[in-house]
Amino acid sequence: MFSSEVTPKRERTRGKLVEVALRSFRARGYDDTTIRLIAAEAGVSTGNAYYHFPTKNHLVQELYVEVQGEHRDAAARDLEGETDLVERLRIVYHRGIDTLAPFHAFAPGFLSAAMSPRSPINPLSAESEPARDIAVATFRDAAAGAKKGFPAEFSEHVPDLLLLAYLLLALFWVYDSSPGQDRTHRLIDRGLALLKLGLPLMRTPVLRAPLREFFDMVAEVRA
């Protein structure tokens, strides 16, 4: 009986901390959001907050999952009825940048905290796997839903490649000071125009061996 009464309270406390943290990250960014501030706004003790989340970075992972979920849902709505591969990828990349837009003013703080290979909020870290899995699935669904997709022998590795391209694009977006980050959106369109030209070449025998080597390199990066 004791356990059944305590557990819901703990879950409510954890949920409140996550709610406050996500709101703070959106309003204040990474640097100005602290566990002490989150605890105060959630109405719990600092010690209790640390019990649920030992560091601020544990809460950043909650943010990553939420943002990737928003990206997935926004892309899914626009993908309905679209069967062209390049157009489907265009939707996913643009909706991804749109989802990040509210964080642009705070992006340098998040980037500084994530750049170290040992950082738990590095997008390629083990801790970031839940959010990364959502992103990979979003790209996988985009590619799989095309009427004419990538060659079958490469399709397994394509989502990882598309995710790495998205991470590089997000890095460019952090430094993009153009209005509305228009340069980033133009970069998406120009890159996809090149992909459209190159897709037929991916099906030619002469390029298959180099492409297999390329995808093996991508797999090595992801490992």
Give descriptors for this structure:
75% helix, 223 residues, Tetracycline Repressor, domain 2, Arc Repressor Mutant, subunit A, 11 helices, 0% strand, mainly alpha
Structure overview:
- The protein is mostly helical and 223 residues long.
- The protein folds into two domains: 1-54, Orthogonal Bundle (Arc Repressor Mutant, subunit A); 57-222, Tetracycline Repressor, domain 2 (Orthogonal Bundle).
- The protein is 75% helix and 0% strand.
- It contains eleven helices and no strands.
- The chain has helices at 2-28, 35-42, 46-52, 56-79, 85-100, 107-114, 129-144, 152-155, 158-175, 182-202, 205-222.
- The model has no long low-confidence stretch (mean pLDDT 90).
Distance between the termini: 45 Å
Structural category is mainly alpha
As a percent range, the share of strand residues is under 5%
- Overall 3D geometry? elongated
Radius of gyration: 20 Å
Task: Give the full name of the CATH homologous superfamily of the largest domain.
Answer: Tetracycline Repressor, domain 2
| Percentage of residues in helical conformation | over 70%
Our count of helices gives 11
Q: Kindly give the count of domains.
A: 2
Largest sheet: none
Reading off the top of the CATH hierarchy, the class of the largest domain is best stated as Mainly Alpha
**How do the SSEs run, as a string of H and E?**
HHHHHHHHHHH
